[in-house]
Design brief:
This protein is about 70% helix and about 0% strand. It is an all-alpha fold.
Length: about 1500
């Protein structure tokens, strides 16, 4: 119940003293001024509430009495405290039902205007007095304005309503300014008043009066309230509505001529002296006065800031409402007038207002954007008007340039650039100086880059790049530099893109500008200070970027262009590079560092361009750079004396500036490329010597805080010099190819690992690691086997250096641990030179054999614990390299070496037994798992002691479960499983393996089956399924497995006699044995014992994942035994299994549908819901379960292992505990498929009968719902698989009953509005029917097929969530047309009705407005495509559907006339209706023209016209 309709909480006992006044004299007592006011108010409340007090028009008299007290307070001698009581009494009276529903109480009631006027005046006055009445007054006003009968006093007069709204606004503003909480009643009152006023304003005929009232009473309070919304978020929507009210009042179409006349008179200096509207003038006068208000006059707000922001909004809204009409000059005049208000005058270069330069820029930036958005400036029009706008914009630019650099400063420059680039050209030197050269704040780089990029884009489009560059060089020449201006990577890259697209003539012109400017700067350099050096460096950067992006191929097409560019290259070399090198090499003159860097930079880029030009000039001879001296090679390239180059190198070395050193390395790479390009000579020693020079100083400069150079060459520094140099070396490696020696490669790989692992800063190490890892994993580098061997050696060296014993007591000398020394020895042996030099294969294998013996004898044990320390981050980097290297297709011995190294790391980390190393341990196991299958080609387990390895893994699994997480233990198990697979495929190891398994099984207790035995048996069972096995191998396997079973049988018999519980190992083992051994060799008691145990596990909803999966695998193995004539399961057991599996299947669906919330990581079936919800979208409630179809495992052995593969993947990803129940669900389906395959006809009949019975939805309750849902899925899987002829006949007999049950269920579901039920049950029923129809007449008769049309008519198609339902219905209709054509043609009216439903849905969902809101355009387009396929099928039967095609067309045009289709949906849908028009003859078209309504007929005419123009076949191509 609303607050205003509630009865006041006043006790009736308060009025017991007044019971004696049940007489007409009560009115006299109320008017008695000598009586106490409190008594009179109590009497008023009593008379109002009591039905026993009766006198004429009582309610109106009481309201007037209270209003009179408030209106005549002085005459009634009412004090302030008594006024509070009167307001409270009026508030309580107005809260009662009598006030708001007087008709029910048989009386009339009005509020007099005088009372409403008192309320309007008091609502602000009492707040200022702080009398405490404000809340009651607000409550009274809210009750009146919300009442349908009393609110007339507020809404009848516009003047009163606008005044009241203004007072409420001021009250709200002052409440927020005073820091008081805004009561909900006040917010409601403001919202209600705003809504009421909005309606009144729109209906007001005198818009001039509205304008004046809004300006006087609402404008300022609204702006103040808008500035305070951050303190009261509840008012944001209300402020938006108030702003709409302002816009409606100020920009009404009646005021547009007055704006034009006012602006023409004020700004345009119109000599006609038109009469200026006082209302418009008052608005701008008010805004001007407010913005000129001195700061400090208002303690609460910054009026200037508020008005400044409103001027921006006012200008944008003025243009948006088209107040200027078609006259853009009016919009410009308003812009000028606003500039006058903020202090910009054409007659003065100084600001004439109170705003600062920064505040003016803040206003100008959005004003200029509005000018651009609404296209106020037109250059041709402005030219005809005398360039009035252009001159004013030039004047504004002067004021903008006087402000500080900021984001809005650059926004203004960009706006001027978009308006007319000529605006900036007049002050381009100052623009470059202030906006670029003097920028020191790095935070402004993003905005500076944006402006410079837009500047380049503009002049590039205008084809005036030389002009821009000339302006830039002029600005550089005329300015004194104190530092090198910022030239960012983003700007340089975009400048390069501009250069790439320049025509040849423009490129030569730009090149000439640089050839003219740089020598001039060199001349000044001899007499001037560092300013000239900075200028030279800046221009050199520009020239270097220019040279690096010139498109070389374009200048070698013709002889003329080749000569032109050759001349420019020679002039650059002789006029710039040679003088620069001579200036640097001259020891008589001091060389500033910028000059040295400029010389090196231009030399490198000129050299790169020089070689590229030679590459395109096939006829020319290459420069022969094969001298022993690198300086002479540089002399060959640059024709500069080698002595000068030597002096330059000496200066670079002595100065120690890293960016100069890096550029010298780049020059060295030029020599290296020249030597490599000349294939006629082989100089491997020289190549190695040059490469060694490239990284000779890298390690010396390596710091703990090194970072990667991601910018330009001039950004090389101490921090990024070493990584940048190493990156340069790695770039050169693919060019060197096989010319590198093993020693040089080893030095490089060692250096890579040191750079990657010696960085202290974690973030820098991650960046470096990812970059160099990507560089080292490049295919060009990995092609070299020498690189892989050396990199693996460097990796193991790094591991060796980072592992050591942890000293617990520094004062005591610790005895050297044998395990630690063995680990160190193994790692040292893995780094032996025999693996990196060109040694014989036998020597490498001998070394690997020796290492394997060390690992087997000393490391593969789990006894003892030693505190070892490792560098975790370094180890992770090493593991990443090993993972990449071991996956390459190189020599098998390198794969074995990688595996042995990782195995050594695993033994080292296991020796620590610390849970904090889990991440590292997980990575090691992941690398080993990926490597184990790669080494299958190598005799790995001929080197490692198999028994020790298996025992070590088994012991780890048994012991580490108490230390590490389940994810780690599962990875260990997966490693052991893959190792067993590799061992089993080596047939020579089989006898030894069987001996090990028997020995392990003998030594284990009854309650435990070693994990290695279980996994070994599983791999043997998979091995025996291969068809290529020889008989001797099969015999060895069966004999060995039989011996294992004898020991296992003893265990099972003892467990059966005792009360001990079976484990996962027992179930997995017997499951594998059932697949290997013949039926007669397996004890039936053991089979039954584990079967009963498995049934109990499936019935128990708290069973863990592994045990449940093992039980399902065991049942599946029983169903798919090797000998089809010998059955391991009886008929009763098979039916029991069917009942159990079906129940579990249904229960899992129920758990998912109910969305049970699970806390923790409990291993139970209830976790299914949580795991699915974490990984699936909320809206897809059941889609997960249909993603894994039931598999008939005997028909496809690959499918049989799909869930097993998924299990391995989950274990590897570490998500088996979280998502394992998905695997269980898929395994249940697979097991059901195997069970149905093994049953005979009678049992199959029983199964089908239960499915048919469960498909009947007797009542829509939860149990029946999920029972039918499960049965629908199971039935769908049954019909989709191949069956014997006898079983197929059983299915055919049941189809009719199933279809009848489906129609009955759809009839019950047709009125259900719950989308969950529709998508979860109705849609699967439709999909199942579509699948049944796809089998054609062989499965069901035509009469039975037509039943599906009833479901198509029943299923709801209303909302955007029904897209799956649409697709299901469309699939049913399509299947009928394809596979049951005669049935569809026999019920054409029903079929057309269903097709029309689909068309209506597509059009409704294709509505452009709906798709924008719901973001489902893709689904709607796909539905249109599906419908098109159906309509094409319909059109293919022209004789049958031509008579009813008129209904399809009329349905389309009638629906599409109501809304606008999204273009993509329309394009997909139109071919469907065109296909129907193809089968319409002239009579149908004439009929459509006659019967359609007028509006629909127009749509059809357009449709038919487009059809005849674009689609109709006329016989011409």
């Amino acid at each position: 119940m609303p607050q205003c309709m509630m009865e006041p909480k006043t006790s009736f006992s308060e009025f017991t003293p007044f019971l004696e006044f049940f007489s007409p004299g009560i009115y006299t007592r109320l008017k008695d001024r000598t009586s106490d006011i409190k008594s009179r108010l109590k009497l008023t409340k009593f008379a109002w509430l009591s039905d026993k007090v009766i006198f004429p028009n009582k309610e109106q008299v009481l309201i007037d009495f209270l209003g009179g007290l408030l209106l005549n307070r002085k005459r009634s001698n009412i004090t302030e405290d008594e006024t509070f009581l009167v307001w409270r009494c009026l508030f309580e009276v107005l809260q009662t039902r009598k006030c708001h529903t007087p008709a029910k109480f048989r009386h009339t009631l009005i509020i007099k205007p005088s009372i409403s006027q008192v309320l309007c005046d008091s609502i602000l006055l009492e707040y200022e007095k702080n009398s405490g009445c404000t809340a009651d007054i607000v409550g009274c006003a809210l009750a009146i304005i919300q009442s349908p009968t009393l609110s007339y006093v507020f809404t009848s007069k516009y003047d009163f309503l606008v005044k009241f709204l203004g007072n409420v606004l001021l009250l709200t503003v002052r409440t927020i300014q005073d820091g008081r909480p805004v009561h909900s009643d006040l917010i409601q009152l403001l919202q209600k008043c705003t809504a009421t006023y909005s309606v009144s304003q729109r209906s007001q005929p005198q818009q001039t009066k509205v304008f004046q009232s809004v300006v006087e009473r609402l404008l300022i309070p609204t702006l103040l309230l808008g500035s305070l919304t951050e303190k009261c978020h509840e008012l944001k929507n209300c402020v938006e509505n108030l702003n709409d009210i302002l816009d409606q009042a100020l920009f009404h179409r009646e005021h547009h001529p007055f704006y034009e006349s006012f602006l023409s008179a004020i700004v345009g200096k119109d000599e006609r002296k038109q009469k200026v509207s006082k209302t418009i003038e008052s608005l701008f006068h008010l805004l001007s006065n407010l913005i000129n208000k001195k700061k400090g006059q208002d303690n609460y707000t910054d009026t200037q800031k508020i008005i400044s922001h409103y001027l921006v909004a006012f200008f944008d809204h003025f243009l948006s409402h088209k107040c200027h009409g078609e006259k853009t000059q009016t919009g410009f005049r308003l812009f000028v007038h606003i500039c006058h208000i903020i202090g910009i005058r054409e007659s003065s270069l100084e600001l004439c207002g109170p705003l600062s330069q920064e505040e003016v820029v803040i206003v100008l930036s959005p004003l200029l954007r509005s000018l651009l958005k609404h296209e106020i400036y037109s250059q041709p029009q402005d030219t005809s008007d005398g360039n009035i706008q252009l001159k004013f914009y030039n004047h504004i630019l002067i004021h903008v340039l006087e402000g500080k650099q900021s984001s809005l400063f650059y926004a203004c420059l960009e706006s001027f650039l978009e308006l007319n680039h000529a605006i900036l050209e007049t002050k381009m030197s100052e623009v470059f100086r202030i906006g670029w050269f003097e920028v020191l704040n790095r935070d402004l780089m993003t905005y500076l880059d944006g402006f410079l990029i837009k500047l380049l884009q503009t002049y590039s489009k205008l084809r005036q790049v030389p002009k821009l560059l000339s302006l830039l060089l002029t600005s550089v020449r005329d300015m004194e530099f104190t530092q090198d201006p910022v030239f960012s990577e983003a700007t340089s890259l975009h400048f390069g893109e501009v250069v790439e697209h320049l025509p040849q003539g423009v490129v030569t012109e730009v090149w000439g500008l640089f050839l003219k400017e740089i020598p001039a700067l060199l001349l000044r350099l001899q007499t001037e200070d560092t300013s000239s050096a900075c200028k030279l460096l800046f221009v050199t950067k520009l020239f270097a970027v220019f040279l690096s992006h010139v498109k070389v191929a374009d200048y070698t097409i013709t002889h003329l262009t080749r000569l032109k560019v050759k001349g420019l290259m020679e002039e650059t070399q002789s006029g710039i590079i040679a003088p620069l090198i001579e200036r640097v090499a001259d020891r008589k003159l001091s060389t500033p560092e910028p000059v040295l860097f400029s010389a090196l930079l231009l030399s490198y880029f000129w050299g790169e361009l020089h070689f590229l030009l030679e590459a395109f000039n096939v006829g020319d001879q290459r420069s022969e750079c094969h001298e022993q001296n690198i300086y002479r090679n540089l002399e060959v390239i640059f024709t500069i004396d080698s002595k000068s180059w030597k002096k330059v190198h000496t200066i670079v070395t002595d100065a120690g500036v890293k960016r100069n050193s890096y550029l010298w390395k780049l020059l060295t790479t030029l020599v290296l490329k020249a030597m490599l390009a000349d294939k006629s000579i082989e100089l491997p020693k020289d190549i190695m010597r040059i490469l060694l020079k490239l990284f000779s100083d890298i390690e010396k400069c390596l710091s703990g805080k090194a970072c990667l150079a991601l910018g330009m060459l001039w950004e090389i520094s101490e921090e990024n010099y070493s990584p940048a140099s190493l990156d340069l070396v790695l770039k050169m490696l693919p060019l060197c190819g096989s010319r590198l020696s093993c020693d040089t490669t080893q030095q490089i790989t060692d250096l890579v690992m040191r750079v990657m692992t010696n960085v202290i800063d974690v973030e820098c190490q991650q960046i470096l690691g990812s970059h160099f890892l990507e560089r080292c994993s490049h295919s060009d580098i990995l092609e070299s086997s020498s690189w892989s061997s050396c990199m693996l050696t460097a990796t193991f060296k790094t591991v060796r250096l980072t592992i050591r014993e942890k000293q617990k007591n520094s004062n005591k000398k610790m005895k050297t641990d044998s395990k630690l020394s063995t680990i160190s020895t193994v790692l040292d042996e893995l780094c032996d030179d025999v693996f990196t030099t060109a040694s014989e294969y036998s020597k490498r294998m001998e070394k690997l054999q020796f290492i394997s013996h060390l690992i087997s004898d000393r490391l593969l044990n789990v006894h003892g614990e030693r505190q070892l320390t490792t560098d975790k981050s370094s180890w992770i980097i090493c593991l990443q390299h090993i993972e990449i290297l071991t996956q390459c297709d190189h020599s098998p011995e390198e794969m074995v070496r990688g595996f042995l190294g990782v195995l050594t790391q695993l033994t080292a980390i296991m020796a620590q037994k610390q849970t904090e190393d889990e991440e590292l341990l997980g990575r090691i196991l992941s690398v080993m798992i990926k490597t184990i299958e790669k080494v299958a080609r190598a005799p790995l387990f001929h080197m490692i002691n198999v028994e020790k390895f298996l025992n070590w893994c088994s012991c780890l699994l048994a012991q580490e479960k108490q230390i590490y997480s389940q994810a780690i233990c599962q990875k260990l198990e997966l490693l052991l499983e893959l190792s067993c697979r590799v061992m089993v495929t080596d047939f020579q190891l089989l006898p030894e393996l069987f001996h090990i398994m028997n020995k392990g099984l003998q030594g284990s207790p009854v309650t435990v089956v070693p994990c290695s035995v279980v996994l070994f048996l599983k791999e043997i069972s998979q091995l025996l399924k291969r068809s290529y096995l020889k008989e001797d191998v099969i015999g060895v396997c069966q004999t060995g497995v039989l011996e294992i079973y004898r020991y296992l049988k003893t265990h099972l018999d003892k467990l059966q006699e005792s009360s001990e519980k079976l484990t996962v190992g027992h179930v997995w083992s017997l499951s594998a044995l059932v697949q290997i051994l013949p039926r007669e060799q397996i004890d039936s008691n053991n089979v039954t014992f584990i079967l009963n145990f498995s049934l109990k596990i499936l019935e128990d909803l708290q069973g863990d994942l592994c045990l449940t999966g093992a039980c399902l695998e065991y049942i599946q193995s029983l169903c798919l035994s090797l000998d089809p004539d010998v059955k391991l399961l009886s008929c009763e057991q098979k039916l029991t299994l069917w009942t159990t599996l079906k129940t579990v299947f249904k229960h899992m669906l129920m758990q998912n549908g109910q969305k049970t919330s699970i806390k923790g990581e409990s291993q139970s079936l209830k976790c299914l819901v949580a795991s699915i919800l974490k990984s699936k979208e909320p809206d897809r409630k059941f889609d997960y379960f249909t993603d894994f179809p039931m598999e008939w495992t005997s028909q496809d052995e690959e499918k049989q292992q799909s869930w097993a593969w998924m299990r391995k993947k989950m274990m590897f990803d570490g998500c088996f505990e979280r998502d394992g129940w998905r695997l269980i669900f898929q395994q249940i389906q697979s097991t059901i498929g195997a069970l149905i395959f093994c049953v005979d006809a009678d049992q199959f009949q029983t199964i089908i009968d239960t499915l048919v019975l469960d498909c009947h939805l007797e009542e829509l309750v939860q149990h029946n719902f999920y029972k039918m849902f499960a049965s629908v899925h199971l039935w769908k899987q049954v019909i989709q698989n191949e069956l014997t002829e006898e079983k197929g006949a059983i299915v055919v007999q049941a189809v009719e009953k199933v279809m009848i049950h489906f129609q009955s269920a759809m009839l019950q579901l047709k009125d259900i509005q719950d989308d969950h039920v529709i998508l979860s049950l109705a849609v699967p029923i439709m999909k199942c029917q579509a699948d049944m129809l796809n089998f054609g007449p062989s499965l069901m008769s035509s009469q039975c097929a037509t039943l599906a049309l009833q479901s198509c008519a029943y299923i709801p198609l209303c909302t955007s969530s029904h897209y799956p339902a649409f697709n299901a219905v469309c699939a049913v209709l399509t299947s009928m047309m394809v596979h049951h054509t005669e049935a569809a043609l026999s019920v054409i009216p029903t079929f057309i009705s269903c097709a029309n439903r689909l068309m209506k849905f597509v059009i409704a969902m294709g509505n452009q407005e709906i798709l924008i809101e719901t973001n489902t355009a893709t689904e709607a387009r796909n539905c249109a495509h599906n419908l098109n396929k159906l309509y094409v099928l319909i059109a293919s039967h022209k004789l049958d559907f031509s008579k009813v095609a008129v209904y399809l067309v009329s349905n389309f045009v009638s629906e599409v006339q109501k809304m606008t289709l999204l273009p993509t949906v329309k394009r997909a849908l139109m071919p469907a209706i065109y296909a129907i028009l193809d089968i319409c003859d002239n009579h149908v078209i004439s009929q459509l023209h006659m019967v359609l309504n007028q509006g629909v007929k127009a749509v059809f005419k357009v449709l038919y016209s487009d059809y005849m123009k674009y689609h109709h076949y006329t016989g011409k191509v």
